[in-house]
Amino acid sequence: MKFVPASCIKLDDPLWSKQFDLVRNVVLPHMWEILNGRVENAEKSRCIENFKIAAGLSNAQYYGPVFGDSDLYKWLEAVSYCLALDNDPRLNDLCDQVIDLIEAAQQPDGYLNTYFTVVAPEKRWTNLMEGHELYCAGHLMEAAVAHYQATRKVKLLDVACRFADLIHSIFGTDKRRGYPGHPEIELALIRLYEVTCKERYLSLAGYFINERGVGKNIFEEERQQDGHAYIFPEMEHFKADYFQSHLPVREQLRVTGHAVRAMYLFSGMADFARLTNDPALIEACKRLYENTVSRQMYVTGGVGSACSGERFTVDFDLPSDSAYAESCASIGLMLFSSRMWLLDPRKSYYDVWEQVLHNNVLSGMGRDGKHFFYVNPLEVVPQTVSSNPMLSHVKTQRQKWFGVACCPPNLARILTSMCGYIYALDNDRLYILSHIGSSFEQGGLYVKLCHDGDTYTLMVDGGPTDVFLRLPENSELIGDQFGNPSNGYFSLHHAGGKRQYSYSLKPVIRLLRAHPSVSALTGKTCVQRGQTIYCVEGSDNEVPLSALRLPVDAVFTEEKADWLQEDLPILKTTGYSVSDLNWEKKLYDSQPCVYEPREITFIPYSHWGNRGENEMRVWLTEKQAKSNIQESE
Amino acid sequence: MKFVPASCIKLDDPLWSKQFDLVRNVVLPHMWEILNGRVENAEKSRCIENFKIAAGLSNAQYYGPVFGDSDLYKWLEAVSYCLALDNDPRLNDLCDQVIDLIEAAQQPDGYLNTYFTVVAPEKRWTNLMEGHELYCAGHLMEAAVAHYQATRKVKLLDVACRFADLIHSIFGTDKRRGYPGHPEIELALIRLYEVTCKERYLSLAGYFINERGVGKNIFEEERQQDGHAYIFPEMEHFKADYFQSHLPVREQLRVTGHAVRAMYLFSGMADFARLTNDPALIEACKRLYENTVSRQMYVTGGVGSACSGERFTVDFDLPSDSAYAESCASIGLMLFSSRMWLLDPRKSYYDVWEQVLHNNVLSGMGRDGKHFFYVNPLEVVPQTVSSNPMLSHVKTQRQKWFGVACCPPNLARILTSMCGYIYALDNDRLYILSHIGSSFEQGGLYVKLCHDGDTYTLMVDGGPTDVFLRLPENSELIGDQFGNPSNGYFSLHHAGGKRQYSYSLKPVIRLLRAHPSVSALTGKTCVQRGQTIYCVEGSDNEVPLSALRLPVDAVFTEEKADWLQEDLPILKTTGYSVSDLNWEKKLYDSQPCVYEPREITFIPYSHWGNRGENEMRVWLTEKQAKSNIQESE
């Protein structure tokens, strides 16, 4: 079972085509300007300049974080997904120039990292914990694979293979011990293996996975080396579990530490487990996935609760206002989820995949394509954010760019490649995992899925094949041509030839509650329509939003909002607000709450903060019994 | 109108005598050992040694924070309150030795600060923002006044006056500009003025108050001096409002910045406003008090929400789990409240005074007198505290000592001096502000208040005088001999001679809610009995406490608990817990909450954490409608 790669898929979907076009037409050109340091009032980036310095084409000073190269690689990966669908010659040329520059920055032995080449050549591979050399190498490989799949040009692939071969010659059993402080290369080497079929890339990925947390911790050894200096001084106090190297990966019971590192590592583990059919590793992946999504994930699909170290904390610790929920971490959870599905085609993996994509990921990018969230809180009171230093990581408005700029290019690559995870094929089976308007042709099979509102038309030409339609969570699927669903899939046998099938897919609106152990969410409820989580914003509702009450039996009406140019509606219901009439100069009192009926307007969480700074809240306090006007309790 | 000083009052109260005796018999001897660095596994203190070094009696190395001297002064102040009531010769001698040591450490010109004398003599007065010289001077003066009032010995008073005279010769109009980075000396100079009647101490206090925030900020000027170095590097980024020096004090509208500094400054302001009858300053005190207690105070009387900078944040920002609510800040709020009452005898100032004393202050010290809270959270889940770095300031158990050891000696001095704020007298009026069993004789008037449970007997001998009994918040006072209450006071005319009056005072149990704008407390309620806030602990209740629901119409029964050796009962009621039966492997779901009836046990917040580490929670989610067994919603 394999996914139909993004490079083969043409998107034609009211919501997702717009996102794709926004990335291609606005985000990527804008990022190019940023990477060249040509955008005013944005965090400074000298990414391209650093490559020129490393290539001997500039005498400027290196500027930027040690992992800066990955920004360009992620940009190139995203651009490649665009090229696959629409070979814009201007963009094609630009890629070729960039690839020439990258090749020029590669050292004769294949080494490629502008920071260590320019700033600290003698420190190569001496600080795997913080140096991000293997991390950047991984993003180079992913970009190379994407560019090759899009253009069939091999230049960048050759660059990546040369570097991969160098790394393979250095690290491994009977060679030097090592594994990355920031995983990424594991899954990247496997992508490289899948296009090149070179076994050594697979085995190197396996080495990094299997060596991790075994025997003496190599990061401890590094710290003890003479002349060791921290690149990130705060890391001095981080323990092995922060780097997921506290135990052999097969023995890890809970997800710990830096959220992006964890998601990337587990994604590589899932790939390797599938390709080697390793039961213990499969078991570990399932256990860690389970812990992530059923104990440590926000309802928006965000992961990593704590700002300090951008990390996972402990089961059920999911504060809304101080949430970190980094955009990159949720992208990592999408990668992990789709890979888990390949291991075990349970539909629930895609319930999470869609939950993450439709909410935390989509919220990461502003509607203008030029502003981004790194941190994705579930509750914001602007004056509190600006006054309480504990919330200094929270931004109430999307930012132009970041000193650590991992998120924007990561959003660009996932939004241009997510279609590469929605169809899966093997000899006689076609899985449609997410109902996104799109089409592809592969191995004599042509498939086209389009929808008009809730009405979907699936055209299949070729086959024969069994078609499995995944029932998305919180939706109703009705299709006479399909049998009864089994394990969350509707299926039919396509006998061959060209046929059209139709079905309707209706999102359901429901109220969600959290597990009773989630301390921050006791007594609270949130609104979900299909996979979309909704929130309230100050612009639509009386503030303070904390005074709003949502009745347990709320009935919602759907409306179109002009500012929200999506096929997503806003929702309205009659709820209540607690009157502050008798609270003048009081902070605590025994007086009964007086509830006033009030229309409450909900918008998709993914679109909050697009109308200026204001309050936002996902979880509202539930009002259990329906009340009469001015009811007191 | 003046308070009857603590030195004249004999406590005889089931709750407060025990606290007093615990401080005298356990806390103070224990602290003496600590100050001498003789306690194992406690944060190291070399306070006494530092004085010996400054006195030329030791060649050891200075050790400890720049404000370390204040620990000894606060200890000495507390010991003095004990001496006033019971002239223990051994303690008396120890004080005399300590005072000899302090005098020996004083420099010929009157200067007294071990850090600057030993470590940085050339830096005297060069860093008022961080140096704490004026702060330590203030605590010396308070100790000197207390010791003089207790023993009539003048040696320490002379030491304090010599230092005050030096400071007066340096700072002031037409002299050097200055004011303390950490207020305290203002209120201390006024205490010194009140025992010595030397006007210059009053006017120096006034200078520090009036100069603050006027013209160019002197802390800014200090930062710009050549050779300026930060003592606390983090302060580099703190703005003027952190030090309450952003505006002239009369123009400050909201309480800002470091909570202890603010409370001490405002206390001094209230004293100075009263003594000078300055309308603008009185107005400012009332405004800042109002903002503190009606917008930024925890229900436990804690103030200062944010760990970073131990500071106030913004109106209604009162998170329970990350609360800072430093013990010292709440002590400062008691000082501020009692001084506001002298300005304007409204009974509500004492509602706050008692709310703070009975809850945040009492919680600061463990029942063994050897463990203390610096931070007083309102909600603790131990595994979350240990895993989420954002909560690293929270301790789930009281600590032996602290690197910054301001709180334990401050608790000792307030618990031995609080009786000095409960009686106020002038020519023909006696105010009884807090109903604490005690007696005093002053100016031919003998007053004795005792109680047996809810029955109080007031004996007055002398007079004539009008007696005003304050009605405590959330209590019922019944007394036939008293007229109808007016403005919260019951009163009677004592015609003279010896007479006994009796009344009953019953605490009421009620549920409190917070202002609808308090985002962290939406939908929550807490239990208050009299002035005592209650909480639930894991030891008495099924965890997770987040699953508990408290019905709006809960009825409570009072019980005696063996472990709780106070005249405070524990409370029990029938509430609910949300079943987690159907939540296996689920984190979010639309299923209705299933409520199971459950007995909930509440204990006084002040006594949490005395039975080992476990969950604690003050605010429970309110269940609006009373439910039947297994009711679903």
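The longest strand of chain A covers residues 498-507.
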